[in-house]
Amino acid sequence: MTLSITECLVMSWIYGVDRFMKDIELMTGKKPSNYWKFMWQFFSPALVLTTLIFNIYNMQRVSLEDYTFPEWAVMVGWVFGVMAIVPLPICAAYAVSRIKTGSLRQRILLLCQPAVNFGPVKEEDRECYFQSFNEFDWIRYRAAKRGMDWRTYKEYKANKSHSGVSSQDTAV
Questions:
Q1: Same domain, yes or no, for 1 and 80?
Q2: SS (H, E, C) 92-105
Q3: Average pLDDT over the chain, rounded to an integer
Q4: What is the residue-wise DSSP string for 146-164?
Q5: 0.90 surpassed by pTM
Q6: Do residues 81 and 26 share a domain?
Q7: Domain that holds residue 147
Q8: Number of C-alpha atoms within 13 angstroms, CB side, residue 99?
Q9: Which of 70, 77, 112, 129 is the 20 to 30 A CA-CA neighbour of 171?
């Protein structure tokens, strides 16, 4: 359930539910309704979180009919359960540690944006993908091309505007 909550939050709030809906529209030709936006962004994470809280609250000793499992068996179950979750923070910490420049916040923001080569491989699909970009998507794309998070890029661009914007900042 922890991974389910993480997936819901990452898809809705880091990748962005609007970007996800644009991706679905690009693939299927139909934009999902706002019903799905609400379900992905609010209802699903809330439902999974509520289920997790109730499961923790109602947790009892593990038993099957009249047999109560020994403590060591319960611990083995917990170890297997935790083994599925542990790689997530370990891989995240490793990815953050590999970036050598910027504050911790900047490194995390950089990792939370799409890579420059993200998107469709076919040129005609890639053109449609770029056409679906809004202003924020372009900022994130240009920031990724410079190896910056979008907030640092906006500061960089504001400082650079005093001396004139380079053609690299406006080119796809």
A1: yes
A2: HHHHHHHCCCCCHH
A3: 87
A4: TT--HHHHHHHHHHHHTT-
A5: no
A6: yes
A7: 100-163
A8: 19
A9: 112
